[in-house]
């Protein structure tokens, strides 16, 4: 029979989701389905999934705050971390949130190679920004009194490609949700980008977004699927079914 002393003092390792508003809103019950609760359910009793999403942040902001919240090894063990930026960095040149693409790539590398990251050695997954829907984004921009589009489908695509370049250069897995979103609605390379004004409006694509930028439950399902695919492919021993519970099942107390 297990005693309380056998399990006393144990702490859950952490799975930190670091990103912008798309990460922050992934805990919102209004979405109906979000990345954070989906991962917490998958790793129930095994890991603590922590949302560190910051609405409006770019990779410049990310590097300014990272060391202020990321725990030292003496405080907690970070087993996984997603880095999910680019949706704001990819704003058009001249927009307040725009970050040049080369700077964006360097900023991602700084986060991956940051001394705080190196001290923890978490399993890192980069996530590309999702595509955007210019048809829906018109309303989002209008609500902010923006005279011109803040983002374009074509520019966002290049920032997704930049994330993949960084992942390849540093041997870090990438959840390529940009491609997943596009393929889910039948887009093929060489065709006009679905979501852009060069292609007809696509009803199924609309269903993935709240406002052309932020995601619905259907959109978050695709993100969750890609993140889990990378975990299962890269660290199969860390998949939810292969991790033990931190505290034992209740039946062990009667053995």
TrEMBL record:
Domain SGNH hydrolase-type esterase, first and last residues per copy: 17-222
UniProt-recorded name of the protein: GDSL Lipase/Acylhydrolase family protein
InterPro entries (UniProt xref): Iah1-like, SGNH_hydro, SGNH_hydro_sf
Record-linked Gene3D superfamilies: SGNH hydrolase
Pfam families, per the entry: Lipase_GDSL_2 (PF13472)
């Amino acid at each position: 029979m297990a005693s309380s002393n056998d399990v006393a003092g144990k702490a859950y390792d952490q799975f930190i989701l670091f990103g912008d508003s798309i990460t922050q809103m992934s805990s919102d019950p209004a979405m109906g389905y979000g990345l954070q609760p989906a991962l917490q359910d998958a790793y129930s009793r095994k890991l603590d999934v922590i949302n560190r999403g910051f609405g409006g942040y770019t990779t410049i902001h990310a590097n300014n705050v990272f060391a202020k919240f990321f725990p030292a090894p003496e405080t907690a063990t970070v087993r996984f971390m997603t880095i999910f930026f680019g949706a704001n960095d990819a704003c058009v040149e001249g927009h307040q949130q725009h970050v040049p693409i080369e700077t964006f790539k360097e900023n991602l590398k700084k986060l991956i190679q940051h001394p705080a990251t190196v001290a923890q050695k978490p399993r890192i997954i980069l996530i590309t920004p999702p595509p955007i829907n210019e048809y829906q984004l018109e309303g989002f921009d209008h609500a902010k009194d923006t005279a011109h589009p803040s983002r374009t489908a074509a520019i966002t695509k290049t920032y997704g490609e930049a994330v993949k370049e960084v992942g390849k250069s540093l041997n870090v897995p990438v959840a390529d949700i940009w491609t997943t979103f596009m393929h889910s609605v039948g887009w093929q390379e060489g065709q006009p980008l679905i979501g852009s004004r060069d292609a007809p409006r696509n009803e199924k694509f609309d269903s993935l977004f709240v406002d052309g930028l932020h995601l619905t439950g259907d959109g978050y399902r695709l993100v969750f699927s890609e993140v889990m695919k990378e975990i299962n492919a890269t660290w199969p021993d860390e998949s939810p079914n292969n991790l033990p519970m931190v505290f034992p099942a209740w039946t062990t107390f009667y053995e």
